[in-house]
Structures are given as structure tokens and as C-alpha cells.
């Protein structure tokens, strides 16, 4: 790896905005003829005219001047490398410069700030290999020293003069070049291979491409305000350092009214309606949801990158809903499909990653987020740090009149707890003065998902006409069913209340929960 080839793509799996690469493309894949659709291109926003990027074939690569086969490519660019992310200051900080400049070109893949630093202080030019249409739709980088625009493809047709244009613009093979495409994935990696084949050895790929640059900087390279807005629907992909920085100190939750002094319900309090029995609730304690308590279920069968290995545990199942816990190590894979036939809700206990809709819209998820994958969703999973989640899958008919195209994933930040609306004191309270708060984050057809909080107090519940699965984020409560079975719940527990459950709620410490409620009318 004395030349730039080993350095340029030492780990092509790092060649995107998070290190979630698919591995180096086979050189046999560069060209327009194959039908492989890149469903999981993170942050890709080419626009309506360019719907999906297709991975080209051997013929197209030959037209671009390539002459290596797949085995040679894999041998030259092995899948290896550290996926960890630095926690350094910004590009113009002296410490950042001192830590960055000596590492290139050997490091091979540059974050957005590293690329900005290389351009400003190490004489690197930015080579933009996007098509003219992409640049017109997405925007351009307009720095004091202009980028070099040489498209690798125009639409689905390869630019047959790519190599000759590169030689004309960079006659010196020692030229310092940062290669950029839309998202830092397929075409930037292809361009790096082609530049290496021509003997360029100071070549670097920009992770995240223009989409990441545009999220961090404006066109002239000035840093944007990167304060992350509440992620109610989706967000433009940002660097993981930025995401974690902004997510680490969420706004303080609005304090609920001071809880009243709590007085336990009278001993032997009975439900208001006479019910002799009810189905039991399903309960999984926080301890039962730990990594070492969830049985292994093996590796994913269809994988794009990494070696994602799963664990799975069911907590409850009937003909309408299932609930449980799931873990998976780092990796990338397509979602169940071709399209989901159920709606899934899950709460992220641990992990970091993203879901990518079929058109490239990216939804980042972090610990404390809850996520909805509606029926009909098609997309890609990328797990950056191993995930541990609790989940509920809801089987239901299609919702009349609801037919979005595409169906999008929904990620809701824990900041949603700050936005809950007060519902007042429960009118059926027979102990204390329980003040309730609620936020509906998803309410489509028979599936309702949201967040709920309540101060100490107690009340009797009526027989449920719906099913509910909830995860306790904070607080303590006791649920006593009509059979007299007592279940204490606290932070980290997963509870499923089946249809027909009937009993009593007693909240000892203000509780916060995230929930999914299902109501199938056709049962």
C-alpha cells in the first residue's frame, strides 16, 4: 500500500456519512446496465428526475477505462479498518489541524471537517464527480478556490472522457485530490479506483459527500447552525459527532405541576364494574431485557455490510400484536420486504444507526428514540452501534385513504416528552390527584403511538377494548388486575395489556411511558 490505492479505500465500508459503507464496489459493477437498485444510499437527495442510483456493470466500467477484475479489486482494497469516529474540534481549530494533516493521504477517507481542513491547509482540490443535473438540483460548493467538476456519469451513461478530463485537469500524478459525490458511496469509490489505476497517489474520499457537506456548511464553506431540531419525522443526515453532540444535552423537560401528597387506595378497593376474570398482562422486567437475557437468533441472512448478529425474545403474542425485545450487532441490511405487511413500533434502549426510505430519505435513531415502520415501508437498516430495543408488531388491514408514496419511517426524539399536552386530573381518580400528560406521535388507522406521563395517584380501569404495549421510561407504578394479581412496574420494564384486561392503576412515582395502542375493528 505504498501508493495511494491502499490508502484511498483501505476500508471502503467507511466511505459514507457514518462509516456504514457497503464495502468496495466490484469493478465489474461500474456501468449502466445492471438493474441493482441502491435502496439504502444514505442521504441521497438527487431529486425527482433521478429517482434511484443504479450500480453499473462491467461494460460501463470498461468504457471508463477499467481493466481489473473483481478478485484483483478485493485484494487491493480489503474490507478492514476502524469504524470509530473522532471527537475532535472543528476543521479550523489548531488542535484539529495538528491531528488531521499528518494522517493524509494515508488515512484515505476524510470526514467533512477533515476534508475542509485538507482543502484549506494542505492544498487539496475537491473533485466533484456528480452529474451536472445533480449539481443543479443539490447545489455546489463555492469556495475561494473552485471545485473541479468532472462527472463520472451523466444520468445512467458513463462519461467516456472521464479519464482524459482528469489528466487534463490534474497532469501531475502527485496532485492532492479529495473526491466527492452526492453521498460518498458508490460513485466516489468508483472514481477513487479509476484515479488509482491512473497512478494518482494523493487521493482521499470524502465521507458523506455533498449531502453531508451541505448539512454542515453552506455553499461557501461557512459552518451552519448545527443545533439539531426535534426529529419528529426525519432529518438530513449529519455527521455522527454532530448528532451526538446535540443529542447529549436535550432541553430540560417542562416540570409538571408539583405532585399532590399520595394516599394509597383503601385496602380491598374493588373495580366499579363486576368482572370475575380477565386475561393476564405480559411483563418483562428491565433485567429480563438485558443483553445476556435475550436468546441468540443467529446472523442476518441477507446482509449489505458487516456481520449483523441478532438476539430475540418474545414477550406476548396473539393474532393482532406481538411484543418483545431484539438486539443486533453493527451491520447493514435491507428491511423485511419487498414491503412491510405489518406496522412496527420500537423503542431504542441502546445503539445508534439509521433507517433509509426507498427514495433515500434518512432517519437517524439514537438511544431514547421511538420509531415507527408503517405497513408498506420499504428501506434499509444501518446499525452503527449495536442496538437493543423493545418492539411491538401490529397486524392489520390496509388503512382506507392512506396511501403515501413512499411510506416513510418515523423517528421521534425523547424531546417529545417536553411537548406533551396536559390532560388535567383524571376524573376517575379515587386516590391522590393524578395529573396526566400525553403526546400523539402517530395515529393512523388502528395504530396509535405516543408518550404519556402521570403524577402519583390511583384509579380503577374499565375492561380494555384495545391492546396496549408500553415501555416505562421513568417512575414506578403498581397494576392490579381483577383477579387480584399484582404487578409492580418501573423504569426499563416492558408491559403488554391485552384486550379485556381490567384492574387498577396506582402510581407511586411520576411515570413516563411510550406506548402503542391497537384497535382492530374487524376482529
Question: Would you mind describing this structure in some detail?
Answer:
With 523 residues, this protein is α+β, with helices and mostly antiparallel strands. The chain folds into three domains: 4-216, 3-Layer(aba) Sandwich (Oxidized Rhodanese, domain 1); 240-252 and 282-413, Jelly Rolls (Sandwich), CATH 2.60.120; 418-518, Jelly Rolls, CATH 2.60.120. It is built from ten helices and 27 strands. It has helices spanning 4-8, 58-64, 70-76, 94-100, 112-121, 132-138, 162-169, 186-197, 209-216, 240-247; strands at residues 109-110, 125-128, 148-149, 153-154, 157-158, 176-180, 202-206, 282-284, 296-299, 305-306, 309-317, 321-328, 331-334, 343-357, 362-365, 370-373, 379-394, 410-412, 421-425, 429-432, 435-444, 447-454, 457-460, 467-481, 486-490, 494-497, 503-518. The strands form four sheets. Strands 8, 19, 20, 21, 22, 23, 24, 25, 26 and 27 form a ten-stranded antiparallel sheet that branches. β14 and β15 form a beta hairpin. Mean pLDDT is 76; it is low at 1-88 and 226-274.
List keywords for this structure.
Jelly Rolls; 10-stranded antiparallel sheet; Oxidized Rhodanese, domain 1; disordered N terminus; alpha+beta; 27 strands
Compact overview of the structure:
With 523 residues, this protein is an alpha+beta fold.
Fold blueprint:
Elements: H1 4-8, H2 58-64, H3 70-76, H4 94-100, E1 109-110, H5 112-121, E2 125-128, H6 132-138, E3 148-149, E4 153-154, E5 157-158, H7 162-169, E6 176-180, H8 186-197, E7 202-206, H9 209-216, H10 240-247, E8 282-284, E9 296-299, E10 305-306, E11 309-317, E12 321-328, E13 331-334, E14 343-357, E15 362-365, E16 370-373, E17 379-394, E18 410-412, E19 421-425, E20 429-432, E21 435-444, E22 447-454, E23 457-460, E24 467-481, E25 486-490, E26 494-497, E27 503-518
Parallel strand pairs: 1-7, 2-3, 2-6, 6-7
Antiparallel strand pairs: 4-5, 8-26, 9-11, 10-13, 11-12, 12-17, 13-17, 14-15, 14-16, 14-17, 16-18, 19-21, 20-23, 21-22, 22-27, 23-27, 24-25, 24-26, 24-27
